[in-house]
Design goal:
Blueprint (H helix, E strand, L loop, with lengths): L11 E3 L3 H4 E11 L3 H8 L3 E2 L4 E5 L2 E5 L2 E2 L16 E4 L2 H12 L3 E11 L2 E11 L2 H25 L1
């Protein structure tokens, strides 16, 4: 029997470009304000957040360019796919994010969208952009780790 509150099918939309293009700093878990058809599209994993970012405006934080596709079985009241969505955080966390982004050089990037106890959550992070040589270095490290794993798997056989 499955535990109460666990789903056999967990939905997780990831930002795959984030680790490659940014140095990831402090992370925050935020709620997201959605409409009914947006929740249904998220549960069907019809979303992408590769180009998304967040901004603090008037003491509130909004996520831009996150694309949640229209619900296939929706009607006239379907949502707009790329509308700005409000993120729900505590006031202290919003002030911390605002002070970090106002100082310059950092951005607020969503890393993933997932469901926790039936509620949609967004994992956002303070991120600093990588230069081209940093990207090359991280690609070399990933390739080296891949070669080591491949050699270890051949050794086990």
């Amino acid at each position: 029997m499955a535990k109460k509150g666990t789903d056999s099918k967990t939905v997780e939309i990831r930002n795959r470009k984030a680790g490659r293009d940014y140095f990831i700093g402090e992370t925050f878990e935020a709620g997201i304000q959605l409409r009914g058809t947006e929740v249904k599209s998220l549960r069907a994993a019809k979303a992408q957040i590769n180009d998304a970012f967040a901004r603090v405006e008037n003491g509130e934080i909004f996520m831009y360019q996150a694309h949640i596709s229209e619900y296939d079985f929706g009607n006239l009241n379907n949502h707009q796919p790329a509308r700005p969505r409000k993120l729900l955080l505590h006031k202290k966390q919003i002030l911390k994010l605002k002070s970090a982004t106002d100082s310059g050089g950092t951005a607020i990037i969503p890393l993933k969208i997932y469901f926790k106890k039936g509620l949609a959550k967004v994992l956002i992070a303070l991120a600093t952009g990588k230069k081209l040589y940093d990207k090359r270095e991280s690609i070399k490290k990933e390739q080296a780790m891949r070669d080591v794993r491949r050699a270890m798997s051949f050794r086990r056989k």
